[in-house]
Structure formats: structure tokens, C-alpha cells
Amino acid sequence: MVKMWRISLCVLVVIPLLAQALEIENPYVRGLPPTQRNTAAFFTVHNASDKAVELKAGTSDAAERLEIHSHRHHDGMMMMQEEGSVTIGAGKSIVFSPGGYHLMLIDLTRPVRDGDEVSFSLVADDGEEIMVVAPVISVLKEAPSKHEHTEMHP
Ligand SMILES: [Cu+2]
């Protein structure tokens, strides 16, 4: 009984700490042919806290490194550009989606096929690491994007 009590106390204490300020919704990783060395992850990140949070790329079990990228129009072309971080205002969301912000998985360490799972993380400015497990969805199943044809990378 003592053990039981300890466990339930633990649950009571831990849950409020796990009520993260940041919520990752609808994550997925783009599945590409195995010849591709890089791919991208997409998701919506919501900041439920009352202060802005700065997010940086963390690590992944499927890539050597991660970078946050955005797309910019430059001389009529869509170019992608590395962002050191993104800041999400209090109560706000940022959508990572094809043609916009995305988390690049660079130098894949294993194939990422449709139906696989990939984990990746994001790191908040307070040092908290947010772990995400995302399904891989083939690029062929992705909803068409009006920017798709001008993207400079997979
Ligand atoms: Cu990119």
C-alpha cells in the first residue's frame, strides 16, 4: 500500500509539470524516395503560456542535424533560408507547413518511408526539450500546395 501511495503522489506532482506551455499538433515527416538525403517535418506549435517562447531545432533519431527553415520570395523565386530560431507569442501558434516554416532533417541516417515513425525535438529558450514522434507521410499523399512547384528543396 505504501508503494501505491507513493505512485499516486508522484502522479499528482508530475502532471502539472508536464502541462507543457508548448503543444505540437498534427506533426508529420515528409516521406521521399530513399535517394534523398534531406527531408522536412511539419506541424503546428501552440504556445499556451502567457509569455513568448523562442524555439530552436533539437535532434532527431533519423537525421544528423535539424534546422528551422523558412521560405522567402527573392527575385520571384521561392528560396529557403535557415532561421536560428522562431518566437511564438503568448497564446499564439506558428504553422510549419510546405512552402512556409519547416524543420529540415539534414543528412538522414536511415530511410524514412511512408508509415514509419520519426522522432525529433525542439528546444525552448528555457532549455526544455519537446520530444515529438511523428508519422512519415509520403510526399505523394501531401495536399497540393500552390508553392510546391517552386520549392528549392525536397
Ligand atoms: Cu528547408
What is the helix fraction of residues, given as a range?
Answer: 10-25%
Number of strands: 10
Count of individual domains:
1
Instruction: State the low-pLDDT regions, or none.
Output: 14-18
SSE blueprint and pairings:
Layout: H1 2-18, E1 22-31, E2 39-47, E3 53-60, E4 63-74, E5 77-83, E6 86-88, E7 93-96, E8 102-108, E9 117-124, E10 129-138
Parallel strand pairs: 1-10
Antiparallel strand pairs: 1-2, 2-7, 2-8, 3-6, 3-9, 4-5, 4-8, 9-10
The structure holds copper (II) ion.
What structural keywords apply?
154 residues, mainly beta, Immunoglobulin-like, 10-stranded mixed β-sheet, 1 helix, globular
Can you walk through the features of this model?
The protein has 154 residues and is mainly beta. It has one domain: Sandwich (Immunoglobulin-like), CATH 2.60.40. It is built from one helix and ten strands; from the N terminus they run αββββββββββ. The protein has one helix spanning 2-18; strands at residues 22-31, 39-47, 53-60, 63-74, 77-83, 86-88, 93-96, 102-108, 117-124, 129-138. Strands 1, 2, 3, 4, 5, 6, 7, 8, 9 and 10 form a ten-stranded mixed sheet that branches. Strand 4 and strand 5 form a beta hairpin. Mean pLDDT is 86; it is low at 14-18. Copper (II) ion binds at residues 40, 69, 80, 102, 104, 153. The site of copper (II) ion has 6 residues, from strand 8.
